[in-house]
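May I ask for an example protein's residues together with how it folds?

___
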Amino acid sequence: MINDQISLKGALTITKNGEVIREIDNLVVTAGKELLASRLAGNSGSVISYMAVGTGTTAAAVGNTTLATEVDRNALSVSGGTASGAAVTYATTWLAGDATGALTEAGLFTASSGGTMLARTVFAAVNKGSDDLVTISWTVTVS
């Protein structure tokens, strides 16, 4: 009997003013898995092209479709991410004056508002001041 399982694993790195301050695993949510299955079946559709941050602290759950308290959403540096082997990396930067506050959650989405969520994570607060630059690099690996 052949038993081959596919899993999606995500991890992200948060840098503030060029210094790594968080490395966190994430949860690939049900809607994200369904998006992947649809694409594997040859269906065209929206690609992951936005990342959002928020201030919610509710634990990530497979049924999530939004952040608990989204405060800002930015286009990714490369729409659809950058593939390398069995991994796709998504990244974006929040510039000075953008998304200031105690950020505690992040998610990947297919649209500038609404859209399908691929993954969500909650983390210890990253205090982003008005002059800070915060970059999130998020890698999703199929294994």
The longest helix spans residues 30-40.
